UniProtKB/TrEMBL annotation:
Sulfotransferase domain residues: 43-293
Subcellular localization, as worded in the UniProt entry: Cytoplasm
Pfam families per UniProt: Sulfotransfer_1 (PF00685)
Major localisation: cytoplasm
Name of the encoding gene: Sult1c3
Highest taxon in the source lineage: Eukaryota
Entry GO CC: cytoplasm
Protein name from the UniProt record: Sulfotransferase
Top EC class, one word: transferase
GO molecular function: sulfotransferase activity
Keyword field: Cytoplasm, Transferase
């Protein structure tokens, strides 16, 4: 049903996926994982946590704009991958580990992670760091992830859409099960300083969600600045911003001719990919996996 661009064996994965506690993580080695586990947080660190393809880059841009009081030039000081380190992951074109970069960074730091809550470095909880978690409905997350796997050499070839659909539901993808991730963080929010947001809410009412972020961060900005942030972090504007649209990543890592990183940016694209049968299968599986949780998602706006 969809054009296939197969990656050759050599270009299929540039980073190792290490299995920790049954979760495939984008961590280069056991040594690096040991360092991630020992990561020394600082009380004023802000952590942005997401399951992959849930709006990380978008939220990063919003938070950077908030941090810089809406100063566009300051937010264009470097590309997204060069502004805020990932805790567990380093893009393959970089010479220095993001972990080392993070350790050298002056405070206050903003750090990104795709780790499930139970695999977070314990010191982050000990230091009571603030975490903003963004969740996205699984259907769009799956479609976005499928295209991302196709365009990046950092991840294995997704094979066919049908194959990927099965793998995603089974949690046999990078960062593990979407279900475990969103539910784990949902439970964690009752124990730690976590603001749990949804991609679809950000899309529907960015102003309301930015106000939530501001309140959580204990910061105030004028409505004019907030409007400016909404404009500069809108999909259409970010797509044209070379510091935010990920075109700065070398093409052998992100091949935008296969699929743009800034692809659709809309809830509901899953409808163009799920067949009726797939949707029924998925809904049944979802119901079972989400039984007993108060967490709900909307798949269109
Ligand atoms: P699609 O592939 O559905 O378009 P992440 O940054 O976590 O990898 O998430 C990438 C997804 O967020 C992509 O989804 C991308 O288009 C979308 N995205 C990026 N910037 C966005 C923005 N400003 N508004 C809405 N969606 C955005």
């Amino acid at each position: 049903m969809m054009a296939q661009t197969e990656k050759t064996e050599e270009e299929s994965t540039l980073i190792n996926l290490l299995e920790i506690d049954g979760v495939m993580l984008p961590v280069i080695s056991k040594e690096i994982w040991a360092r991630v586990c020992n990561f020394q947080a600082r009380p004023d660190d802000l952590i942005l946590a997401t399951y992959p393809k849930s709006g990380t880059t978008w939220t990063q841009e919003i938070l950077d704009m908030i941090h810089n009081d809406g100063d566009v030039a300051k937010c264009q000081r470097a590309t997204s991958t060069e502004r805020h380190p990932f805790i567990e992951l380093t893009f393959t074109h970089k010479e220095k580990l993001d972990l080392d970069w993070a350790n050298e960074m002056p405070s206050p730091r903003m750090l990104k992670t795709h780790l499930p809550s139970h695999l977070m470095p314990p010191n982050i909880w000990k230091q009571n760091c603030k975490v903003i978690y963004v969740a996205r409905n699984p259907k769009d997350c799956m479609v976005s992830s499928y295209y991302f796997h196709k365009m990046t050499s950092m991840l294995p070839d997704p094979k066919s859409w049908e194959d990927f659909f099965e793998k995603f539901m089974a949690g046999k993808v990078v960062c593990g099960s979407w279900y475990d991730h969103v539910k784990g963080w949902w439970a964690a929010k009752d124990k730690y300083q976590i603001l749990y947001l949804f991609y679809e809410d950000m899309k529907r009412n960015p102003k309301r969600e930015i106000h939530k972020m501001l309140e959580f961060l204990g910061k105030t900005l004028s409505e004019d600045v907030i409007d400016k942030i909404i404009y500069h972090t809108s999909f259409d504007v970010m797509k044209e911003n070379p510091m935010a649209n990920q075109t700065g990543v070398p093409t052998h890592i992100f091949d935008h001719s296969i699929s743009h990183f800034m692809r659709k940016g809309m809830p509901g694209d899953w409808k163009n990919h799920f067949t009726v049968a797939m949707n029924e299968t998925f809904d049944k599986h979802y119901k079972k996996k989400m039984e007993g949780t108060t967490l709900t998602f909307c798949t269109e706006i």
